[in-house]
Amino acid sequence: MNNAALTGESDAVGRSGDPVRAGPLLEARNCVFLGTDVVAGSAKAVVFATGAATGFGRIFRLAAAAPRQQTPLQRQVASMARRVAGAAPAIGAALFAAGENRLWLRTYLGPVRRVGGR
């Protein structure tokens, strides 16, 4: 079995149907786990846990309980968004003023005619 999804180990580990001593479930040589890969051989298994009671359920609970923190990229994007939002009124005012000036020029000079037939 390749248990890399649960343990991070990339080496395959053998499994056996023989009884084992009590201990950590991930070290039990007679258990296979959801999300792990069969590398060689064949077997029959008995399901004894589902959902939150599985190894992935444990990982999910641990991840859900961890405090949420922003990544450095998320902090930089948020900072840039605040800067752009802060500059938006000034940019909008400049564009509005440019639009008013263009309107004033058209009123003063009359309609603009293009040369060259286009």
Q: What this model shows, in words?
A:
It is a single chain. This protein has helices at 4-7, 55-65, 72-109. The chain has 118 residues and is an all-alpha fold.
Features:
118 residues, mainly alpha, 0% strand
- Kindly report how far apart the N and C termini lie: 73 Å
| Main beta-sheet strand count, sense and barrel state | none
SS-derived structural category: mainly alpha
Mean pLDDT: 77
Helix coverage percent: 40-55%
What's the number of helices?
3
- The H/E string reads HHH
Shape: elongated
The total strand number stands at 0
What percentage of the residues does DSSP assign to strands (E)?
Answer: under 5%
Unreliable stretches (pLDDT < 50, length at least 5) are none
Give a quick precis of the structure.
The chain is mostly helical.
SSE inventory with pairings:
Elements: H1 4-7, H2 55-65, H3 72-109
